Amino acid sequence: MLGALYDRVAESAYSLAVRILERPEAAEEVVAAIFSQVRDEAADADVDELGAVVLSLVRQRAIVRRNTDPAIREVGAKRERAAVEIPEPTHGRRHSLLTRAQRVQLRQSLAQLAPDERSAIELVFFEGLTQDELADRLNAPLEVVRRHVEHGLHTLRGAPLGSP
């Protein structure tokens, strides 16, 4: 079962860790640690459910690593904002957590957000910025940043992805 889980989410987990850490070797360490952590749970768990847990754990651990490692933190402070792309499956070799229709719907939902809301959500969730870091990055007051994130999430909650 661990092999199926790895096939299903390893590429996405690594991509997420690299996006947050911007250091491939650090990203590899984070992903390996998470797969080691969930190894025992993989035997009995649903691959889709555990896949979402793996991605969440990778995000959390990458953020902690970025915030505690001065060299990585410096890289993160200098990087430019990039558009978030939701990758397509790799030629059928790996299974995506979302169906093609769900990915299209997610892209459309994100596109419906106001630009400031979308930027805030992308930076918080895909780069792991705290709201304080987000306010600094966007040169905006903290309360404005909080409203952008809260309103954007509220809007996205109203756009369900349907069943896989």
Protein architecture, described:
This protein is mainly alpha-helical and 164 residues long. The protein has two domains: 1-80 and 90-97, Rna Polymerase Sigma Factor, Chain: A (Orthogonal Bundle); 98-164, Orthogonal Bundle (Arc Repressor Mutant, subunit A). It contains eight helices and no strands. It has helices at residues 2-21, 24-42, 47-68, 70-78, 100-112, 115-126, 131-138, 142-157. The longest helix is centred in the middle third of the chain and has 22 residues, at 47-68. The protein is globular. Residues 75-95 have low confidence and may be disordered.
Number of helices: 8
Please bin the fraction of helical residues: over 70%
| Relative strand content | under 5%
Residue stretches low in confidence (pLDDT < 50, at least 5 long) are 75-95
Question: In CATH terms, what is the architecture of the largest domain?
Answer: Orthogonal Bundle
Radius of gyration (Å):
16 Å
CATH topology of the largest domain: Rna Polymerase Sigma Factor, Chain: A
Order of helices and strands: HHHHHHHH
Overall number of strands: 0
Top-tier CATH class of the largest domain: Mainly Alpha
For the termini, the CA-CA separation is 20 Å
Domain unit count? 2
Overall mean pLDDT: 77
The biggest sheet amounts to: none
Category from helices, strands and their pairing: mainly alpha
**Overall geometric form:** globular
